[in-house]
TrEMBL record:
Gene source species: Thalassotalea castellviae
Entry-linked InterPro entries: CvfB_fam (IPR014464), CvfB_S1_st (IPR039566), CvfB_WH (IPR040764), NA-bd_OB-fold (IPR012340), WH-like_DNA-bd_sf (IPR036388)
Domain Conserved virulence factor B first S1: start-end pairs: 4-63, 70-129
Official protein name in the record: S1-like domain-containing RNA-binding protein
PANTHER family to which the protein is assigned, alphabetical: CONSERVED VIRULENCE FACTOR B (PTHR37296:SF1)
A UniProt-annotated Pfam family: S1_2
Superkingdom of the source species: Bacteria
Length: 276
């Protein structure tokens, strides 16, 4: 069965002047307008589409990619506000509505807000809510220490940044362990550092020891390659310059350089590092 607000692979059952009609099962036949039709589209072709409700309140299919889909979190910009609520730009022709009763604080035009996208059962419309806690798991997490997880940055606190773990739980990244620029809505890879007795979760953006070195190796090699095969960073570079350039501490930088040197992937020169 096809699902509103998600990607679906559907069969073409008819081609008309205004586009192709797709078989969406219980949702019926859904139009894929001409501007989205693949070249030489034919009956029975399988097309991957996103389904949503258009400005005429009809189910419509598109091959465009929204910034987020049903059940996901995203930082979206308010394009306009009216008596219905705030309308958010989510990458499709019709903006996404955040009703007033789904706004954690009153939304303003031009500002970004972290929202969750869900299907309103009464209207069958996709809507957004900035009342994030409603959509997170209240049950204790079952993560293991240093599990790799997907994070969405959720907000700044006195201690650091709150982050949503695997679309399910809140966790915390501490300021003194962050070596890259973060913003609300940014998606990053993280690790479970600790689960406290009260169930709260401490996070890290890197693993300790050898794992941390391995995590950063590819990024450092890519940085050197982007600089034409030579980077002027070296062991006398300031911690501030290394953090600003690479987003890691000087300790991690030096450990990674040493590891890559042992593997024969780089050469240390007087004024920098060169790919071997």
């Amino acid at each position: 069965m096809a699902t509103i607000g998600q990607y679906n692979t559907l069969s073409v059952i008819a081609i008309m002047a205004n586009g192709a009609y797709l078989d969406a099962g219980e949702l019926g036949e859904i139009l894929l307008p001409n501007r989205y039709l693949p070249e030489n589209c034919q009956i029975d072709d399988q097309i991957k589409v996103f389904i949503y409700v258009d400005s005429a309140d009809r189910l419509i299919a598109t091959t465009e990619t929204p910034f987020a889909q049903l059940g996901e979190f995203a930082s979206l910009k308010v394009s306009q506000v009216n008596k219905m609520g705030a309308f958010l730009d989510w990458g499709l022709p019709k903006d996404l509505l955040a009703p007033y009763n789904e706004q954690h604080s009153k939304m303003e035009t031009g500002k970004y807000y972290l929202v969750h996208i869900y299907l309103d059962k009464n209207t069958e419309r996709l809507v957004a809510s900035s009342k994030i806690d409603r959509f997170l798991d209240i049950w204790p997490a079952e993560y293991q220490k240093w599990d790799k997880v997907d994070l969405i940055i959720g907000g700044k606190t006195d201690l650091g940044f709150k982050a949503i773990i695997n679309n399910r739980h809140w966790g915390l990244l501490y300021d003194n362990e962050i070596f890259q620029p973060l913003r609300i809505g940014k998606k990053v890879t993280g690790y479970i550092k600790n689960i406290r007795e009260d169930g709260r979760i401490d996070l890290s953006l890197s693993r300790p020891g050898e794992g941390k070195v391995n995590d950063f190796s590819d990024k450092l090699l890519a940085h050197i390659a982007e600089q034409g095969g030579f980077s002027p960073l070296h062991d006398k570079s300031s911690p501030e310059l290394i953090k600003r350039t690479l987003g890691v501490s000087k300790k991690t930088f030096k450990s990674t350089v040493g590891n890559l040197l042992k593997k024969g992937k780089i050469i240390i020169e007087k004024d920098g590092i060169r790919l071997k």
